[in-house]
Amino acid sequence: MNNQEYINAVEKLNLWAYHYYVLDDPIMTDEGYDKLYHEVVEYEEAHPAEVLADSPTQRVGDVVSEGFVKAKHLSRMWSLEDIFDAQGLQKWLEKTYRLDSSVTFYCEPKYDGASLDLVYENGELIKGITRGNGEEGELITQNVKTIRSIPLSIEHKELIEIRGEVVIFKEEFEKINKERMKRGEQLFANPRNAAAGSLRQLDPGITASRNLVFLPYGVGVNSLEHKLLSDKMSYIYELGFREPPLRAVTKGYDEIEAIYEKMKEQRESYQMMLDGMVVKVNEIAAQIDMGYTVKVPRWAVAYKFPAVEKITTLKDIILQVGRTGVVTPVAVVEPTDIEGAVVERATLHNFDEIERMDIRIGDQVIILRSGDVIPKIVKVLTQERNGSEVKIERPKNCPVCGSELLQEEVLIKCQNLTCEARVVNSIIYFASKQCLNIDGLGNKIVEQLFNAALVRSVLDLFDLTMEKLLELEGFKEKRAKNLLTSIESVKGCELWRFINALGVEHIGEVGSKMIAEAFGLEYAHATQEQLVTIDGIGDEMAESYLEFMRVNHETVEKVQAILQPVAPEQKEEAKENPFKGKTVVLTGTMSEPRPKIKEMLESLGSKVSGSVSKKTDYVIYGEDAGSKYDKAVSLGVGTLTEDEMRSLL
Ligand code: IVH
After folding, report:
1. Span 626-649, mean pLDDT?
2. Distance (Å, rounded) from C-alpha 246 to C-alpha 239?
3. Confidence of residue 62 (pLDDT cuts 50, 70, 90)
4. CA-nearest residue, atom 23 of ligand 1
5. Distance (Å, rounded) from C-alpha 29 to C-alpha 35?
6. Residue 621: which H helix or E strand, with range?
7. In this model, does residue 351 exceed pLDDT 70?
8. Which residues contact 589 (CB under 8 A, 6 or more apart)?
9. Domain, as residue range, for 602
10. By CB neighbour count within 10 A (0-12 exposed, 13-18 middle, 19+ buried), where does 98 fall?
11. What pLDDT is recorded for position 574?
């Protein structure tokens, strides 16, 4: 690797990370990322003087500090007044309208995590400070740099404090607790505690390992001139921060209530925990006029969601067997209403956890519905026992096929490939959203089809007929017809969906897309050498793929013959034009959103890159262009205004 290649590699890694951590839309596999990352590390070790400040390696702090020093916020961090119901909202609105009757309201999630203040100066992240008492907090810059959704540098050059909440996504939280359990460590009670605890680690390596996420909700000191908070926030997101799953500008009571209901309903499907919705006056001038009480702004309020913890009784434990054979214990509890949903089941992860918590049938337990599909047991009320509770034994045989179970680390697995549960779950996976997305073919129906012996493998799905379906309970002509139509409609699906649906271990959505892109309909004949030349596919993935194709080639061929998947189109070569084959960088505010201009240039055959180097052919700039423009001038790279670019075309 030479210096230029190093610069390009850093740029690539940052782009991939932005797609992964901020846009949630990965364009590279973990393996591909790791490979290039290691090359960057090697280069940096050999050339320490050339290390770039925004290289991803600069995120990994290895200096364990002895304690944190205090740091003052440039402006105070406030808290929020809470309201709990429609009446509370009504009252708050009356109060607010008395101060200014013409305002509108910006609504966004109230994230459940730990607040953080980021200070950027000259476009560089210089400080990360915990909330502390609002006036001063602890300086945790080294830890903050490990959070991948926090850019190390931004295009905004004036001093700015960007504030937000550091959270742990629900899925990651489960993973961390599973690992802690494996190691016999105390579990985190909820994602908020896990986030706060991880942020204040003296060893930044631990913080880095927790996959924290930063979600901005406002600014402190700043020189932004937007008149509306909603515009200010859009600007912050454009700088490279994560957007909330839902935000809206609303006029008054009815619209606020409608967004609140929507957020409450949707929050199950969000990656992060919310504990409410924040309502803020959208006009900055009105915010300034309204000001603050001693503790909270008069222009904002936290509209909390109802609590989600309940006490219930554990009635039984049932065992579920997944696609890969893992046997998971599921708690059956006395049906309990949590926020309008009746909860009857709760996850228990595995038998180590049952033993660690010493859960017994008949126990009183606290269940938490934290937005996960299945709630979980967080605490056993051992003091409530009366002696009739029954201990839970580890199973020795598969509850479905009876074959002997093997313990693989914390997991207990059924080894029988033809185990009914494994087959049923692979069919469910085949039909699921990220695979073929067969509408109307969910868990229940697959089970029903399997039990009626109508479907014993994915191939049988395509032999279903109206007569066969009408034999099933609950199937009338309309329902049967809909199901047949949606099965039929997946014929001609995109090739990557078909590859993903096969369920090859280690090959997920991104891997499937890469294979489809690289081999088209020759996907099944890819060799080890060819596979590993794809950026993002490594030895383990390639081996798993080849092994799968070797064992299952007959079935794969048959399914392909039925589905007739369509390979991605080979990109047409662009006609001759001044930008064909050129590397360009876009900066500043343009007449259209930059991604749109990027797309146009790419269709003309240019490579649009995120940072300026000697290899750049043109920097195309809009209003308020900053450091990228300056760098182009200093490197002697050609610059064009947006208009000049358009006139060249
Ligand atoms: S605004 C001046 N917005 O909730 C406004 N806070 O209960 C101050 N929080 O300390 C805060 N999501 O850590 C705001 N969308 C959001 C938020 C949010 C979470 C946290 C924040 C704050 C606490 C107040």
Report:
1. 90
2. 18
3. low
4. 79
5. 10
6. strand 618-621
7. yes
8. 622, 623, 624
9. 583-648
10. exposed
11. 81
Q: Are residues 108 and 49 in the same domain?
A: no
Residue 274 CB–ligand 1 contact under 6 Å: no
Q: 284 and 160: one domain?
A: yes
Q: Which of 80, 214, 279, 288 to mutate to test the pocket of ligand 1 (most atoms within 8 A of CB)?
A: 80
Q: What is the CATH number of the domain that holds 608?
A: 3.40.50.10190
503 and 557, same domain (yes or no): yes
What angle is formed at CA 100 by the lines to CA 96 and CA 103, rounded to 5 degrees?
A: 85
- Asked if residue 110 has its Cβ within 6 Å of ligand 1, the reply is yes
Q: Write out pLDDT tens, residues 392-410.
A: 999 999 999 999 999 887 8
Residue 139 sits in the same domain as residue 213: yes
Q: Are 245 and 378 in the same domain?
A: no
- Whether 157 and 208 map to the same domain: the answer is yes
Q: What is the CA radius of gyration of the chain?
A: 28
- Ligand 1: which residue has its CA nearest to atom 21? 115
Predicted TM-score (pTM) of the model is 0.62
Residue that is last in its domain, among 489, 519, 536: 489
Same domain, 626 and 612: yes
Per-residue pLDDT at 575: 86
- Give dist(CA 17, CA 34) in Å, integer: 11
303 lines ligand 1 (CB under 6 A): no
How does DSSP assign 203-255, residue by residue?
SHHHHHHT--EEEEEEESS-----SBHHHHHHHHHHTT-PPPS--EEE-SHHH
Q: State the Cα–Cα distance between residues 356 and 513, nearest whole angstrom.
A: 41
What do you get for the CA distance between the two ends of the chain, in Å? 35
CATH of the domain at 435: 1.10.150.20
Residue range 496-536, pLDDT digits in tens: 999 999 988 889 888 999 999 999 999 999 999 999 888 78
Structure-model confidence comparison of residues 90 and 624, the more confident one: 90
CATH of the domain at 344: 2.40.50.140
| Residue 274 belongs to a domain | yes
Q: Output the average pLDDT for the chain.
A: 91
**Within a domain: 455:** yes
**Is residue 333 located within the same domain as residue 372?**
yes
Q: Does residue 110 carry a catalytic annotation?
A: yes
In a domain, 76, yes or no: no
- Residue 340 pLDDT more than 80? no
Q: State the average pLDDT over residues 187-193.
A: 79
Instruction: Count structural domains, the chain.
Output: 6
- Out of 12, 35, 95, 110, pick the active-site residue: 110
- Per the domain annotation, does 194 fall within a domain? yes
Which three-class secondary structure state does DSSP give residue 80? coil
